Amino acid sequence: MRASALALFTFLSACGGSPSDDAGVSGRDAPAADVPRVDAPPALDAGPDGEPVGHARELRAVWVASVFRLDFPSAAGLSEAAVRAELAALVETSADAGLNAIYFQVRPESDALYDSSIEPWSRFLTGTQGRDPGYDPLAILLELAQPRGIEVHAWVNPLRGLTTTAITVAPNHVSRTLADAAIAYDGGITMDPSDPRVHAHVVDVVVDIVSRYDVDGVVFDDYFYPYPDDTRSPFPDDDSYAAYTAAGGTLGRSDWRRDNVNRLIAAVASAIEAEEPWVRFGVSPFGIYRPGMPPGVIGLDAYETISCDPLAWIEAGSVDYVAPQLYWPTTSSGQPFGDLIAWWASQGTEERPVFATLGPYRLGSAGWSVEELALQVELSRAEAPAAAGQTWFRYENIASDAALRARMAALYAAPARPPRVPGREGETLAAPTVTTSPLGFAHPRAAELAGYLVYRQDGALEAFVPRGAATPALAAGRYRVSAIDRGGLESLGAPFVVP
Length: 499
Known about the structure:
14 helices, 18 strands, four-stranded antiparallel beta sheet, TIM Barrel, alpha/beta
């Protein structure tokens, strides 16, 4: 992630400059000799020795749920034209709210909202699991979102086999192909988290997505070992644990369960790194790690109850971020948002940050308002750089609330790109070339770029220009343009002047 404004100012000062060095130089002033004007000859190359640029990075994402058609699609059996219209509206609404990422649920119950040869089409598209809808929602969303500068992350439920057993299951569904690993619980199916075949299947699914679709990230939600049912009956994995101990395993059941999940997360992370290292991988865990952490917090013990240990994933480098689900107001006595985001941020780092997951679905409940959500954004920003963004659950609650969208647009008025994906230390990216008549930007590694960032003379980010998009009209003035790749690595800025 890029440094804060203060750190950027310090860095520029050390280099003999500052964000205000260009003060008093208008676009109509005579430019310095090393600053190309847009009416100069084409192919004005700043080369690798451009000028330092940067802005406060921030992920701003919305969750789009396909399970039970909560957000998409609006009904089963829609035509391709109707689906395209709904996805276009989704992109437009997200852009209007100032968001830069969409978490699109592509695997709600071990099925697919994309063209998969591994798993069946989701019943939430057509009403019948395995029936081809005749179109590919993920491909359509990528086509619509990325030219608008909005990332698309594939939201995958890793271990939920079925939400209900009361449906007709497709022959190639994992609950049939690995039937002895399908554990019935609370009316649905959880695929055995201890089974190596289940792990391999999940890895294959993720690799299939990132290798065939131009997604920017993969995100898991909090469905690992299932939440307790209404009777709080234990999850029935006695046979699996007995087999583990019979083979010489020595971990207690709780530690064994967490180890199963930890190994799955590590395997997925390694597979993504090997396939597409710039694809961001994260998990959105339950918002309370353990009661009493931080002091005074009460509630479900996710570490023990659903075998979720995000601190282990951060420490091992198995995730690029965590996005804890902080669905409590700042006024809560047992789960105050402010204390929770401060605690989670203390577990993250600038390299592997925390994104606060906010709950606009709670609007209308006691203690919730648009301004409460705005306060939560500001509290999360106060924890930067270890906290570096927000994710919003979920789309329908934003789309149906004009006041919330307007407030989000104000909070996100200044453009920003998500933080850099970890593991890019020491890498560099050449500055872009500024071309003229008309103004445009080019780069020798253009196919690897997300796009270009245009900075004003005061150092503020003016615009993000996605790869392949038209260069925006710029007012007269002095600017710098940098290149940014798919993993968020940014080059130095090539200076230019618009007369």
